[in-house]
Amino acid sequence: MAVAKILAAANPFARLELEPEAVDVAVVRSHYRRLALAVHPDKCKEPQAKEAFQALSEAFEKLSSTVGQAQCLREAGLQAKAAKAAKVSRAARAPGAPGPMGGPPTDEERKARWWDTKTWEEFEERLRHRERAEAALRLRYEGGLRLRFSTRKMREHVRAAERSVEHLDRNAGMTESPLWPPESTQAAREVEEEVAKARQTEPWPGAANELLPNYNERLELNDPALALQRLLELLTHLRAVHRYCLFCGCTYDSAKDMDEHCPGITEEEHEEENIPARDAEEKEAGEAGEDPLEAYMASIDAEAEQQRQKGKRKKRP
After folding, report:
1. Residue 220: C-alpha distances to residues 41, 75, 151, 158, 227 (Å)
2. DSSP H helical ranges for the chain
3. Which CDD domains does the protein's record reference (predicted)?
4. What string of DSSP letters covers 92-156?
5. Residue 15 pLDDT more than 90?
6. Residues linked to residue 245 through DSSP beta bridges, in sequence order
7. Closest to 233 measured CA to CA, from 186, 177, 182
8. Burial 172-203, CB ≥16 within 10 A → b, else e
9. Residue 122 has pLDDT above 80, yes or no
10. Which CATH architecture group holds 1-105?
11. Contacts of 212 (CB under 8 A, 6+ apart)
């Protein structure tokens, strides 16, 4: 019953059995976990369980932020108006048929998702991991002025994470993902082909280049909330799917290995992990003798004094 209901749902809110209105993210997560338990392929043996679980997870991903909820509410409103105008009866749609959110995903598309797991236990671990990541990121970045000052750093992290996702996905044999850098997508290649054709008839040299998007601009990343949500999706994918930490710069052997040896989700946690080591080095240097910087400055002063003395000697009659 749950499988058919999820696949026939008209929008992400309906798939998670939520009213189409803004809701606390904790409620979204609670509904998602309850329904995921009912349709996860490891728990449900219905033929379309995989499709339902994928659709449910995509809905959760969209509604797990206030920005995503606002977008889905706008889309749901437009869909309702279109359905009313065309007098479309959703009841006539067969269970599992493609709805407004698109048809069932392919096996290749599933490979690139953090929720794609063989067992329920692995899914639970990844979900808990995502919750920890979300809490850590929001704690670090949300909060008035701090968030605005962190926007530039978040942009840098997003760009680095996108490149890492593409590299690791390609090495794993995964197909193109929405998490890849925009310039690496099929859409970008199609634009480049159009520009190449336009160069043949451009009114002046370089005119066709104006059609190329500025991928470094990324205006959407100037919105702290959007940038934070994008970073969360990227870090979740890197850590859950590839066991890769962006700030450690390495891949771990297992989730347990990552939990034991990775300092945390954010860059700050990695920096804080190194503070005791730096303090120990400074203390050791202090115990060993004079501070290296002070010793260097003292040598500069001594050399300058020596040069002054030489100058005095030369001036004597």
Report:
1. 36, 19, 11, 12, 7
2. 2-8, 12-15, 25-39, 49-63, 66-86, 107-111, 120-141, 145-149, 151-171, 186-198, 224-242, 255-261, 267-288, 292-315
3. DnaJ
4. GSPTTS-BTTBSPPPHHHHHT-TT--SSHHHHHHHHHHHHHHHHHHHHHH-STHHHHHTHHHHHH
5. yes
6. 250
7. 177
8. eebebbebbbebbeeebeeeeeeeeeeeeeee
9. yes
10. Orthogonal Bundle (1.10)
11. 191, 192, 195
CA distance 75 to 214: 27
Q: Which amino acid is at 104?
A: P
Which carries the bigger pLDDT value, residue 309 or residue 101? 309
Per-residue pLDDT of 184-213, as tens digits, reads 888 778 877 877 877 777 776 777 667 677
Residue with tokens 């390495």: 250
Residues of the chain with CATH 1.10.287.110: 1-105
Cα separation, 61 vs 12, whole angstroms: 9
- Residue 81, pLDDT > 80, answer no
Tokens encoding 102: 């698109």
Summarize pLDDT for 31-62 with one digit per residue, the tens.
999 999 999 999 998 999 999 999 999 999 88
Tell me the mean pLDDT in the region 151-163. Answer: 87
Question: Exposed, middle or buried, 3 (CB in 10 Å: 0-12/13-18/19+)?
Answer: buried
